[in-house]
């Protein structure tokens, strides 16, 4: 069995190396350690402690049983989160590009880190970063708090949706000021991007990342010139979304070597089958991409799940840019497996009354993991065409 696992790991590593053999021409990237100062209030929640996989199952039971306390009744009060967090990010700017002064600031969702946007297997077909650069835009991707190489603080109240919104707001302010690179520690890559200053910023999110952007648009709508909300859609089936299909386990127990730096309250999908169920639709993905998704999987905090609803359903009257909801037609998590005929565009427009343009796109036959699906680049073209049509 061990030899089989070794072969599989080597096979994935080989595919990764091949995928980067011919990077996008003119790809200039710098890897950064961004110090993000946060001083905000957060909710203190009534939650079950999660210190083992047995606890995780009990937590899932508590979160999904119909007679369990609702979210509002779990609020115990407010706390102040005042700290400087290390956020791992990558800034990429095309060597030549008519839109390089427009920065796409990308926030990933549950189960991944910033590698979600920069798939290393057949990057010409799957990497959103490469496609953005080829289109002439610049892009900043980062590991959300609690994931990847970013700080991993308390998983109950600190690594929560509201705090993630504030981190995104601070990153946006840094980027807008032109200090994103110069105020950060360079840990790799190009040395000539320290003065990069965009004139426009488009927020791009996936899943929880889109929820975080929704929170930003409500809290500080004027900070963004546009928003692409992938892997999320307000719709009639959104209530069916549940933590149960993830098959979560305690991260440190699931893989002590990979997730040994995660403490209490950090959970991760247990098997490759769970990853497929949540992210991919049979017939719309290559098996190598499922292997890749499993290899780069990341834990999340229990606090992010309980706090999801705190930023949803609120209007963003100050946001004047274009917004696109872009979701897989067969998204299992947010539409119960079929997004057709589940949404109301008029209701969506009421949330963004000053938006210059609003659209909904269902990517045909695709599941929740948009960058991992076989028609990824076709989807990217839809996004770019929307931005072009909106003057971005």
TrEMBL record:
Which keywords appear in this protein's UniProt record, sorted alphabetically? Signal
Q: Which Gene3D superfamilies does this entry report, sorted A to Z?
A: alpha/beta hydrolase (3.40.50.1820)
- Give residue ranges for domain AB hydrolase-1: 108-373
Residues in the signal sequence: 1-21
InterPro entries per the UniProt record, alphabetical:
AB_hydrolase_1, AB_hydrolase_fold
What superkingdom heads the lineage?
A: Eukaryota
Q: Entry's Pfam families?
A: Abhydrolase_6
Q: What is this protein called?
A: AB hydrolase-1 domain-containing protein
Question: What is the phylogenetic placement of the source species in the record?
Answer: Eukaryota, Fungi, Dikarya, Ascomycota, Pezizomycotina
């Amino acid at each position: 069995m061990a030899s089989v696992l070794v072969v599989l790991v080597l096979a994935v590593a080989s595919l990764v190396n091949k995928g980067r053999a011919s990077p996008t021409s003119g790809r200039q990237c710098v890897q950064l350690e961004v110090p993000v100062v946060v001083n905000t209030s957060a909710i203190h929640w009534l939650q079950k402690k999660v210190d083992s996989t047995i606890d995780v199952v009990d937590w899932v039971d508590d979160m999904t049983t119909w007679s369990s306390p609702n979210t509002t009744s779990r609020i115990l009060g407010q706390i102040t989160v005042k700290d400087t967090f290390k956020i791992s990010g990558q800034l990429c700017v095309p060597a030549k590009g008519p839109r390089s002064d427009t920065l796409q600031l990308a926030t990933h969702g549950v189960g991944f880190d910033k590698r979600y946007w920069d798939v290393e297997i057949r990057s010409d077909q799957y990497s959103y970063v490469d496609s953005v650069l080829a289109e002439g835009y610049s892009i900043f991707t980062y590991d959300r708090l609690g994931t990847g190489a970013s700080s991993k603080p308390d998983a109950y109240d600190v690594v929560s949706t509201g705090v993630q919104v504030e981190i995104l707001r601070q990153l946006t302010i840094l980027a807008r000021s032109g200090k994103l690179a110069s105020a950060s520690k360079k840990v790799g890559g190009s040395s000539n991007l320290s003065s990069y200053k965009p004139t426009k910023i488009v927020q791009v999110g996936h899943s929880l990342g889109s929820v975080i952007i929704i929170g930003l648009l409500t809290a500080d709508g004027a900070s963004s010139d546009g928003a692409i909300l992938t892997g999320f859609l307000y719709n009639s089936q959104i209530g069916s979304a549940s933590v149960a299909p993830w098959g979560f386990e305690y991260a440190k127990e699931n893989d002590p070597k990979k997730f040994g730096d995660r403490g209490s309250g950090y959970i991760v999908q247990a098997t490759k089958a769970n990853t497929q169920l949540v992210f991919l639709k049979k017939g719309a993905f290559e098996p190598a991409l499922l292997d890749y998704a499993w290899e780069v999987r990341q834990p999340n905090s229990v606090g992010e799940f309980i706090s999801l609803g705190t930023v949803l359903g609120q209007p963003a009257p100050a946001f004047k840019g274009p917004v696109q909801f872009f979701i897989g037609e067969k998204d299992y998590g947010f539409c119960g497996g079929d997004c057709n005929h589940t949404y109301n565009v008029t209701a969506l427009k009421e949330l963004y009354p000053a938006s210059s343009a609003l659209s909904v796109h269902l990517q045909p036959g695709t599941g929740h993991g948009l960058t991992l699906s076989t028609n990824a680049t076709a989807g990217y073209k839809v996004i770019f065409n929307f931005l072009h049509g909106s003057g971005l």
